[in-house]
Amino acid sequence: MTSDILKYTWQFILLCLFQVLIFNNLNLGGFLNPFPYIYLILILPISIGRIPILFIGFSLGLVVDVFSNTGGIHAAATTLVAFYRPLYLKAQAPREGYESMALPHLKTFGFAWFIPYAVLIVVLHHSVLFYLEIFRFVEFFHTLLKVILSSALTLFFIFLAEFLFVSNKRR
C-alpha cells in the first residue's frame, strides 16, 4: 500500500514536470498542444474511491495551472475527467466485475477496452480545456480542430508510455 502511494506520487511529480517543462513549450502550429499529464488519471487503480480520484485530478490540474499561469482551466478539466472516469468504468465493467487491484492498462485489458477508454477521457479533457480557454463559440470549428489534433498527439504519447513503461507482469 505504501509502495503504491509512493509510486503514484512519483508519477504525479514526474508527469507534472514533463508537462510544465517540456510539453507546455511544445506548440506546433497552434493546433498541436499535447497534455499527457492526464495519463495519471487513466492509470490509477480501478478500485480507487471517488473522493481520492477527484482530489488527485484537481491537484494534478492545479499544479499544471500554477506553473502554466492558466487560471484554473486545467484543474476544471482534470476534475471533470476524474469525475467521469468511475462512471465510465462502471458502465464498461464485465458482469463479474473487475479484479480488486486491477490497473487499467493496454496490456491488462487489451486494445478493444483501452482505446475507447483513453480516447473518451482525452477528448473530454481537451474539449473542456480548449473551450474554457477560448470561452466563446465564434471560433467553434477552429477550437474543434485543435481538440482533435491535440487529442491525437496526446494519445500518441499515452500509447507510447503504455508500450515503453508498462510490463506484461502487471495483471
Q: Which terms would index this structure?
A:
mainly alpha, single chain, globular
What does this structure look like?
- This protein is an all-alpha fold.
- The chain has one domain (2-165).
- It is 68% helix and 0% strand.
- It has helices at 2-21, 39-43, 50-68, 73-91, 106-109, 111-134, 140-165.
- The protein is globular and about 45 Å long.
- The chain starts with a helix and ends in a 6-residue tail after the last helix.
List the helices and strands and how they pair.
Elements: H1 2-21, H2 39-43, H3 50-68, H4 73-91, H5 106-109, H6 111-134, H7 140-165
The count of strands amounts to 0
Number of helices: 7
Integer average pLDDT: 90
Number of domains: 1
Give the DSSP E fraction (strand runs of 2 or more residues): under 5%
Largest β-sheet summary:
none
The rough form would be described as globular
Structural class: mainly alpha
